[in-house]
Amino acid sequence: MNPLPDHLPDHPDRLWRSAEPKRSYDVVIVGGGGHGLATAYYLARNHGITDVAVLERGWLAGGNMARNTTIIRSNYLWDESAGIYEHALKLWEGLEEDLGYPLLFSQRGVLNLAHSPQDVRESVRRVNANRLNGVDAEWLTPEQVKEVCPIVEISPDVRYPVLGATFQPRAGIAKHDYVAWGFARAAADLGVDMIEHCEVTGLDVRDGRVTGVRTTRGPIAAKKVALAAAGHSSVVAGFAGVALPLQSHPLQALVSELLEPVHPTVVMSNAVHVYVSQAHKGELVMGAGIDAANSYRQRGAFHIIERQMAAALELFPIFARAHVLRTWGGVVDVTPDASPVVGLTPVEDLYVNCGWGTGGFKATPGVGWCYAHTVATGEPHPLNAPFSLDRFTTGRLVDEHGAAAVAH
Amino acid sequence: MLLISCPWCGPRDEAEFHYGGQAHVAHPEDPAALSDEEWARYLFFRDNPKGLFAERWSHTAGCRRWFNIVRDTATNEIHAVYRVGEPRPVIT
Ligand SMILES: Cc1cc2nc3c(=O)[nH]c(=O)nc-3n(C[C@H](O)[C@H](O)[C@H](O)COP(=O)(O)OP(=O)(O)OC[C@H]3O[C@@H](n4cnc5c(N)ncnc54)[C@H](O)[C@@H]3O)c2cc1C
Ligand SMILES: [Zn+2]
């Protein structure tokens, strides 16, 4: 139950080759986060498309990929979500071997706590829905929660008592930097160009078809352009006149000082807004809800952190003397139904992957796989077809506010 | 954390307010005449600029009134605060 390793693997000498931009590519991917890198890798590996550039305005995987709390799970409510997140989880289970790279993927399980009778009903419903979709899930009583994670307070005399929890044993965490580097290295080995410090400042559209990108390092022609710019999706899609149903919000997280192993699993509480796991090195990693107002500032308001810490202390009185070491924020793009948008756009050969909000890290291999298929074939992969942009017109929303687990 | 000047109560901490999203989104005058595409725009699409944004706030822990703000979402700087019904100020 306690998979903390006693040492971390060494860094390899060389991770990827940093490339100069060529004048044209078959596929240009905008955004060098986990999603862009995984898409590049599967384009090359699954579809033999290697004339690909990943353009990143900062440094590779310095966006949300480096800022998330690394929780991986697939216990979403609806069939559509179970499809893509469980596909991702199955890929995670073989990813270290596939990439030939250590990811510290640790299936230590995740508890999603229930604090009210309504939470309990919804959670039990989700367990049943998960099982029907072949996703591992159990309903645990407060006493069973305590067995899985002894440091959770289960007294009934607190403001938000723990009435039980869903438990997904196959869920867990992975080291996000290593995931990005593993994908970058494997994609670069297959011929993909990794181009850092190259901001996309425009999209060239002629006769309803995208023909290339404009960047701070000059224009680059492309047969296809795949957007994977997370928090900045609205800005980038706007270059081609494509409107997206997104709002960008700061999302914060923090870590404590290093502690002895005390926390064997991942605990999430939607109602009180805190998510806690213990990193391999020993920091407690905690995430909060989004800041209410939209903003592109990669920092959030302090009252969010205060609330998050109050919630953490209620659930884990043992943390009372732990010190916060570092807090930070990312910018996440949130959709009205708390599900992503992946697929085609009204502009031909321009593809979009966005709206993963607070929960896209867990999808990294799965979305890379499906998005690569979508870009390579010009047709949505069956697993991302339900997440097409037209669902907002047809009304076939995938309303995951409950299972998305962060208030937004 | 934002310092927001409620038009009625003066400068107060962001924690006293509730956020209401984009301002000046008018309900369609003839809803039955809208196409599905237009309904989708009205219901689900809001501006998301990196830059100046007109938005609604309510002073929930104070006077409980709604008002509008123009804020730069790239810097969080608040450029204007104005009452509901007043036009969006031009910021140069
Ligand atoms: C604090 C926090 C906690 C989170 N916790 C979790 C979690 O526990 N589990 C989970 O599943 N998800 C979590 N997430 C969400 C997850 O991190 C994101 O959904 C996911 O990382 C998004 O995909 P990405 O990796 O490609 O995004 P990013 O890593 O943000 O990649 C997008 C890239 O695009 C680049 N870019 C933007 N504009 C341009 C441009 N014009 N030109 C070139 N490049 C551009 C950016 O610099 C960035 O590197 C969390 C997010 C945050 C912020
Ligand atoms: Zn007031």
Overview of the structural elements:
The complex is a heterodimer of chains A (about 400) and B (about 90). Chain A is globular, with a radius of gyration of 21 Å. In chain A, helix 1 (about 35-45) runs parallel beside helix 5 (about 175-190), helix 1 packs across helix 8 and helix 2 (about 80-100) crosses helix 8 (about 365-375). Chain A contains 10 helices and 18 strands. With about 400 residues, chain A is an alpha/beta fold. Chain A has helices at about 35-45, 80-100, 115-130, 140-150, 175-190, 235-240, 300-315, 365-375, 390-395, 400-405; strands at about 25-30, 50-55, 70, 110-115, 140, 165-170, 170-175, 195, 200-205, 210-215, 220-225, 245-260, 265-270, 275-280, 285-290, 325-335, 340-345, 350-355. Chain A is about 30% helix and about 25% strand. In chain B, about 15% of the residues are buried. The longest helix of chain B is centred in the middle third of the chain and has 9 residues, at about 35-45. Chain B has about 90 residues and is mainly beta. The two termini of chain B are about 25 Å apart. The interface between A and B is medium-sized, with 24 and 27 residues. The complex binds flavin-adenine dinucleotide (FAD) and zinc ion. The site of flavin-adenine dinucleotide has 41 residues of chain A, from helix 1, strand 12 and strand 16. Flavin-adenine dinucleotide (FAD) binds near residues 70, 229 and 232 of chain A.
Oligomeric state of this protein: heterodimer
Radius of gyration of chain B: 15 Å
Shape of chain B: globular
Largest sheet of chain B: 4 strands, antiparallel
Topology diagram in text:
The complex is a heterodimer of chains A (408) and B (92).
Chain A: E1 24-30, H1 34-47, E2 52-55, E3 71-72, H2 79-99, E4 110-114, H3 117-132, E5 138-140, H4 142-148, E6 164-168, E7 172-173, H5 176-189, E8 193-195, E9 200-206, E10 209-215, E11 218-227, H6 233-238, E12 247-258, E13 266-269, E14 274-278, E15 283-290, H7 302-315, E16 324-334, E17 341-344, E18 350-354, H8 364-377, H9 391-394, H10 401-404
Parallel strand pairs in A: 1-2, 1-11, 2-8, 4-13, 11-18
Antiparallel strand pairs in A: 3-7, 4-6, 5-6, 9-10, 10-11, 12-15, 12-16, 13-14, 14-15, 17-18
Helix pairs in contact in A: 1-5, 1-8, 2-8
Chain B: E1 3-6, E2 10-13, E3 18-22, H1 36-44, E4 52-58, E5 66-72, E6 78-83
The structure holds flavin-adenine dinucleotide (FAD) and zinc ion (ZN).
Zinc ion is lined by residues 6, 8-9, 59, 62-63, 65 of chain B.
